[in-house]
Write a structure and sequence with these properties.
The protein is of the alpha+beta class. It has four helices and 14 strands. The protein is rod-shaped and about 145 Å long.
Length: about 325
Amino acid sequence: MFCPNCGLDLNDNTRICPRCKTQINIGSNGNDSQSGWTQDNIDGNSWGNERIADGGLYGDSGFDTDSGFPGDFRGDDSSDGFDVDVHTGNSTFGGSYSSGGTGNKPPILKLFGFIAGGVCLLAAIVSLVVFVILPRIQEKSDSGVPTDSSVDQSNEQQYAEENESSTAEEIGPTTAAKSHEKDFSNVSVSVTTIQPPVLVEGTMGKSAVNKVSADSEAGSNSAQLIIDDDIKTFWASDANLENPSITLDFGSEKDASIIEVRLGAWSSESDFENYGVPTSIDLEIDGYVYPLSFSDSMTVQYIVFSEKVEVSQMMFKINDTNGNGSAISEITVYY
């Protein structure tokens, strides 16, 4: 007998064509292409059986080599109107019918998927803005060019912090044995090596000194050299004199807020080593005495008043130095 599909010469007992895998109906001697089983069909009001056309169960190939099932289980295009696909789970009988396989998802599930995706995207955008973009904008804003007020506040805060860590407590006055023209009892002073912000900004003026006098001068190193605005010149006392003093005379009442001092001989490093640097000085104004301590290094130091004072004279009495004699290069009073 012959295969009804490909025409291959077959043995009489062959059930499946070895070439095309078509099932052979032995009862029809290989000439009947019907599958041999029926399905119920309804015609009007009467029931009947309809024989399924060729390959109705096993399809055109009769065997699915990919899936391993004995047949493709895909229906044919015959007039029986019945079609089954076990791979997709879709079956049709006289029209489209979904059997609950892995076909297309319902529209409601797709809608939920789009909504969930949109929510995740929105959350990602919000997180990016809050945790990345806004901090960078704030950082750029903080690192931008500051205003004058912010500069003043920053300088004052920095000065306060550094001054607090680099100086002793503010020093209150004691009194000398004479009457006072003004009340400076609540005025205190501090000594620092940090330049006050008002001097950095250059907004303070200098109080002019009319003359300087000292109870000791060594050679040509007169006291007047203390106010000549030249750090290469200096006043020096007699090495044998203990506790020398110098007096600044303003000629009239002048305001004072900060006193800048360069203690020692700044003309050269060797002079700085040879002449004594004052380390303890009593500052006296109008009978009020402020005992002050200074560094013996070649650095500018500042005497800062807690509030502006009005004076006509200042006296600096040197109590101690780091060597023989005393030397001072410059004293400048700012109001």
